[in-house]
Design brief:
Length: 199
């Protein structure tokens, strides 16, 4: 009888915890998020000039002269695309060791491409975040130095002055939280949407 009583109490506690933590808490957080932060709660989406919807939280791949370039998007068709051709993931982390020859060759190829597009920086080091992917492979941010590296190219191809480009970069720069947590970072997608006149 005592065993049955223990089982009954255990099941009651399990049911109560499920209702409070799995249902009530989840519902409360969802309602608060939708009411107070609907834009962020629904993915921070913005519609681009091409009609596509972009999340401000996900890096996008740009390689043309009219847009700012961001972190390398690690895309692997074998890993990220299903057999029927549907995309499972747009990008993801890379397991290539930074000490490997494959990594060295990939970075060297990217450095050459960045240098070719920015001849004004022939004697300057290429910012590392322009030739490497982030840990998640989806980071939409680059450092202010990497953004500044591209100012002259953007000014030459967009018709905007270097001052206008820098003003856009400044507006898209996220500051350290509370002034001390994290580093300054530039949201590349936001910069490009502003260059396109979307924002």
């Amino acid at each position: 009888m005592k065993s049955m009583a223990h089982w009954a109490k255990g099941l009651a506690l399990f049911a109560a915890a499920t209702l409070v933590c799995g249902v009530a808490y989840t519902a409360a957080v969802t309602v608060v998020a939708q009411v107070a932060f609907p834009y962020q709660a629904n993915g921070s989406f913005v519609e681009g000039s091409d009609g596509n919807r972009y999340s401000m939280l996900i890096g996008q791949s740009y390689a043309d002269d009219d847009h700012m370039w961001g972190r390398v998007q690690n895309y692997n068709a074998e890993t990220f695309v299903d057999e029927d051709g549907s995309v499972r993931l747009w990008a993801g982390p890379s397991n290539i060791s930074p000490a490997s020859e494959d990594f060295e060759a990939s970075v060297a190829e990217r450095v050459a491409a960045v240098r070719a597009a920015h001849p004004e920086h022939a004697s300057d080091p290429v910012p590392s975040d322009l030739v490497t992917c982030s840990g998640s492979g989806l980071d939409p941010h680059i450092s202010p130095a990497a953004a500044e590296y591209q100012v002259e190219r953007l000014a030459a191809h967009t018709g905007k002055s270097e001052g206008e480009i820098r003003a856009i970069i400044d507006e898209c720069t996220e500051r350290p939280q509370f002034g001390i947590l994290g580093d300054e970072a530039v949201n590349v997608l936001k910069v490009n949407l502003m260059l396109d006149g979307v924002l």
